[in-house]
Structure formats: C-alpha cells, structure tokens
Give the backbone structure.
Amino acid sequence: MKLNIAVLPGDGIGPEVTAQAIKAVKAVCMRFRHELSTQEAPVGASAIEAAGNPYPEETHALCMASDAVLFGAIGAPGYDNDPSARIRPEQGLLAMRKRLELYANIRPVTAFASLLHHSPLRPELVEGVDLLCLRELTGGLYFGQPQGRSEDGQTAYDTCVYSRREIDRIVRLACEYALLRRRKVTVVDKANVLATSRLWRQVAQEIAGEYPSVETEYMFVDNAAMRLVRWPKSFDVIVTENMFGDILTDEASVIAGSLGMLPSASVGVHTSVFEPVHGSYPQAAGKNIANPVAAILSAALMFEYAFRQPDEGRAIRRAVAASIEAGAVTEDITCTHPRSTSDVGDWIAERILSQE
C-alpha cells in the first residue's frame, strides 16, 4: 500500500513530537511493507514568518493532495502577548479546518493501567475509562459572523451560528461510532439557554429515531463537565458543539494522567488531520523533553481512520503500552530517570519492529 502523508510540524514542540511520530510510521511501514512518501509544509507562526500567512496556499495544496496529514501544534508566545496582532498562528488551524471541511474532531480518552496513579482522580474512578469525544469543528462561536469589537474598543462580540446540516452530519457520525462500541451516545448542549443548542437537541432527537439500538441521552454542558470527573466510566460516545467540545475534551484529558498522552483525529470532506491534543508548549521547545506519545498515538489513529489498517494502529498502541510499562517515558510521567523525547521515539519505533 502506498501512503502519501503531509507533515505539518508547526510551532513549539510540534516539530520534536512529530518527528517521533514519523519514526513510528516508518517502522510500521517497514514491518507491514507499505510504501511511504512524506512531505513537510509550514503552518502557524512558522508559516507567518516564512510567508506572512499562517496557512499558506502551498500548505493547503499539499494537504489536499495527500492521503492524510500529521500535524504537530500551533502557537507562539509573541502573538499571545500582543492583543493588537491582526494575524495569529491559531488562524492557520481554523483556516485548515474550514478549508479541508474537517467537521469532526475525534478524541479517544483511555486510561493506561500503569498510569492510574498519575490521574488526579481516584484510581477506582479512572480504571477502565474508554470514551470517545466528537467535537464539531467548523461552526459555532469560533466561526460565527459578525465578530469583532466596537470602535471605542470597550465592547466585543462573537456570534454562535449552527445549521441543521452541520449538526446532522456529526451526530450521525457519533451514532455510527457508537454502533462499533457500547451503543451509547451523550449529546451535550445548553438547550435551556441557547437557541443553537435547542436546534442541536431537536436534530439529535430526530436522528436518534433512526438508531433504535443506540441509547441516546441529552445533557447540559455544566452537568457533563461535572460527570466527567465524578463518573467518567458512564460515557461511551460524547458529541457536542465546537466550544463545549474544546473545553470538555481538555478536561477529559487529565483522566489519562498527562496531556501528552492523548491523540486526536479531525475527519471531514477532504483529507483527515491527525494531531496530539496538547498545545505548542513553547517553554519546552528545543529541550528534547516533551512527551511524544500523543503524537505517536495520533499516527495510530491515522492508520486506523485514514488507511483502514487496524493491525498497524494496534502495533503502535502495543509499543506505546510497552514503553510505559518499561519506564521508557518522559519527565511528565516520571521523575526517576526520565527519557528524552527522541529516546522515547526511538524506543517505540524499535519495539514496533521487534514485535511478534
């Protein structure tokens, strides 16, 4: 099988962790005899510096021509601390999502048995957690118009907009994934306050009738946030709008014990993008200390979702689990003899090749 992958390392620790993901991809391709072609392109702050655009046309063309995209991270402190900046790195991520029509962000949350003691939740609450969060990516407050500030700068406004089509396609996708799992979907909204949430609930109720074997429940976002820390094992598939999903998935990420452990997939109309949940973590950039596991597990998702090769994804997951059990982990996981980013990447790649 020939795999054409666009690699967008991005900013901060993005290049370091993406490089480790590529090591795992190359090991998988060697073991399973796939032909691999990769090409890099800039995005985010690095693209602004190189081309004056956080998502250049050349980068978009490469993504459109590729079978999948491995993405690192976006963000730089210089832009965060300049409220007057008109062009920001994060605009590149939003543009990529919009132009590739990446309407669904998929974030699996799994508790590793050997890392239960790292979770801020009690082990009995975390053990066995296996949930899937689907966040709508192309609508809501992040894209609604009008958006801006008043002339005197004393008032700011954002508009939350959703269409039936946007809601329908992601709720339907959530039901399809639930059929492959434990057949339960939780639709998260704020229908007691927001008109967009009332449309979400109406459309979700209509779709639920088409999936009688899937249990569908409806939950306000504040209740969902509370239940994620009180009873996370009660969730199977969560589906929600853009901003709620952004917040809830970051909250859910602590269940695994480290933000550096969680991958994600963004799927849509054109190609799909696979990226770690964590941000650019500029304080660690260039120090070779960042946890690469989320990026490596994102590569596992790529094999499973983009290429429909579950054995390849499973090989990566087994190697990651083995690295954790062997203590081949970075400093966010252990204070005793932590490994560097590149050492962990090497260990996992070697394990992939040596598996029976």
